[in-house]
Amino acid sequence: MDRIDELEFLKEFKEKVDEYLFLGSAPSEGLVFTSNESKQMREARKNPQFQKLYNSIRDMIPQSEKILRKYDIDYTWFTPSQQQTILKYPLLNLILENETNMNIEKKVFLDRINEAIDAILTVSGKGVFLTCLSVKSDSEVTKAVIQAVQDYGLHPQEVNVDTMSITNDILESVKFSEFFVVDVTYKDPLIYFLVGYARGVGVTPFCIAKRGSSIIEMESCPVTFFDSFYELRRQLGEYLMRENRLE
Question: Of 61, 96, 121, which residue sits at a domain end?
């Protein structure tokens, strides 16, 4: 499992844990586990969706712990026992088992998973390459960018910008990306925002467009035009070298 696989796996795991704990606890940030099982948890156990999430999380915990160990994230939890001693629990197992007489907030679980996600995103070396595109993800430009990136041994992460909103996942991808390619042939005002946001978090955008296309004009992001895939590949290589990321 490479970095991209690990990242996608943990994001899926986090979503399942978030939904599972929400079903089992009325307040989204409230206490999940107490010495006595909550009424919400008892009711949730009758929900088939809750049981499905339980089974899925149970199956994903071993791989999640493996990833957390790899990035030196502590996934244990210490709690007093009835014998006045301190017990050490695998934290992720407590998502499924009400074994502790201490109150544990939902945030505790999600924070550990987020730590691992951040560690993957910020690890040094070649990794995440972000293509920021509009709704036409199957466009000629999109395919050309992805192919060019793969030719340089990098991992493309395609992000499609919905015309109505920008999600936290998109902002997270921009923030932690090593490279940021923007197709400016789509006149979407959200592209302006993303280019500005990228600069604000220290990521230099590389704006591209096929020659002859109608484009978004941005003074802060000069556009590099190309006529062919081969020209795009060459220009991407120059961009990567300027950013001192290409060996």
Answer: 121
